[in-house]
Amino acid sequence: MLFCCIINYFVAMKICIYLFLMVLLFTNCHSKSPTTLKSSEIEQKEERIKVLSKQVKIYSEILDAEYSLFNVNGFESSFSFGVGASSWHYKIAIEVEKKDVDKWLKGMYEAENPNAKDSVWINDMLSNLDSARKQKWERIIKTSTPKRFTMSATNGRSKVAIIYFDEGIIFQRIIQD
């Protein structure tokens, strides 16, 4: 009788361990990771650039950056046991050396002129900045003529770039669904 109780105890423990492992397996390990990064929350330009550089491919030195990044899986860790969608929506404004602008257009082609939809996401990204930082980018938008580039959706990813070549300014919107 005692032997049966001990066996049942170990079976019950084994079931509990399996259940715990199953819960762990199907739980996103970084669920507490922030899903949004906004440059408006970072005052120092160098720190904004450093944070952005960890999230996007960098093709040249960045002189200044503003952004609003959303990643459904969060940003602190790329390690996940979770099963589910991986999507993000990045809105980025960067300043680079004029000679480096073309490096940021890899895989993209010139498209129609910027349209009203482009101004919506650009203004949304800039809306939370303090007035001095916001004015820097808005001055360029109001006084210069951009060109629009796009990348066809591949594997659920699309990219639009609004380029101010003479100023070395690039606005990018990257969506991964």
Radius of gyration: 23 Å
Mean pLDDT: 83
Main pleated sheet: 7 strands, antiparallel
Label the overall shape: globular
In whole angstroms, how far apart are the ends? Answer: 59 Å
Outline the structure in words.
With 177 residues, the chain is of the alpha+beta class. It has four helices and seven strands, in the order αβαβββααβββ. It starts with a helix and ends with a strand.
Offer a concise description of the structure.
The protein has helices spanning 2-25, 45-53, 116-126, 131-143, and strands spanning 36-38, 64-71, 88-95, 109-110, 147-154, 157-164, 169-176. With 177 residues, it is of the alpha+beta class.
Output the keywords:
177 residues; alpha+beta; 7-stranded antiparallel sheet; globular
Produce the secondary structure layout:
Elements: H1 2-25, E1 36-38, H2 45-53, E2 64-71, E3 88-95, E4 109-110, H3 116-126, H4 131-143, E5 147-154, E6 157-164, E7 169-176
Antiparallel strand pairs: 1-2, 2-3, 3-7, 4-5, 5-6, 6-7
